[in-house]
Amino acid sequence: MIEQLIAAARDGVEKRRAQTSQGDLESRLPGRGEGRPFDEALVRPGLSLIAEFKRRSPSAGEISATATVADQAGAYERGGAAALSVLTDEPHFGGSLDDLIAARASCDLPILRKDFIVDPYQLYEAAVNGADAVLLIVRALDDGRLRALYEEARGLDLDCLVEVHDGEELERALQLDADVIGINNRNLDRGTFDVSTTY
Question: What is the C-alpha to C-alpha distance for residues 107 and 36, in angstroms, rounded to an integer?
Fold first, then answer.
């Protein structure tokens, strides 16, 4: 399953790069606007919740045909969310960079681009389309690519949520000295889900 998700992500990058070069994205960086620190939002006093906008999932199908980014983001912010995660993967989750842009315009929360980040191009996309942070999935990247993407993201002033599923992946994430490490209870190889993974 993870191999299919990664392959689709790479294919999507190549298609978008053919339409908009990385150089074009880089030229738009100065117009990003004020950043919203993602990492800092998670360490405020009390419970810090990352709310999520997701149109559909491979396992659950369509989540809500009528939900809009603006409505959901506003509701999450009013409800006290510390940050907002926006799924931008199109083939499997129905998301897009347009959802990222709409989220940025709809709330003042720090925004995480949640996608299968496999190429630096996606970091530039994230930066110019309203993200304050990106998701890096350890299972999807070898050590060299993981570190390179992490360092390039930080160079673009993007915070990183580094996702792990097991102890081996945690050890790899710790080598980055990442500020935020998340545990995914879903096994991306098998598609199974077990909340005891966190324990």
Answer: 11
CA distances to 2, 53, 68, 142, 199 from 136, rounded to whole Å, are 14, 18, 26, 11, 21
- What angle (nearest 5°) sits at the alpha carbon of residue 186, between those of residues 12 and 44? 90
pLDDT, residue 33, reads: 80
Asked if the model's pLDDT at residue 192 lies above 70, the reply is no
Q: Tally the C-alpha atoms within 13 A of residue 9's C-alpha that lie toward its C-beta.
A: 24
Could you tell me the CA-to-CA distances from 42 to 10, 21, 98, 131, 153 in Å, in that order?
30, 33, 25, 16, 18
Residue 131 phi, psi dihedral angles, 5° rounding: -80, 150
Number of domains in the chain: 1
CB of 8 within 8 A of CB of 91? yes
The position carrying tokens 């945690």 is: 170
Domain that holds residue 127: 2-28+35-198
Where residue 105 sits, what CATH number does that domain have? 3.20.20.70
Q: What's the confidence (pLDDT) of residue 59?
A: 79
The DSSP code for 157 is: T
Residue with tokens 């939002």: 41
Spatial CB neighbours of 126, under 8 Å, sequence gap ≥ 6: 100, 113, 117, 134, 158
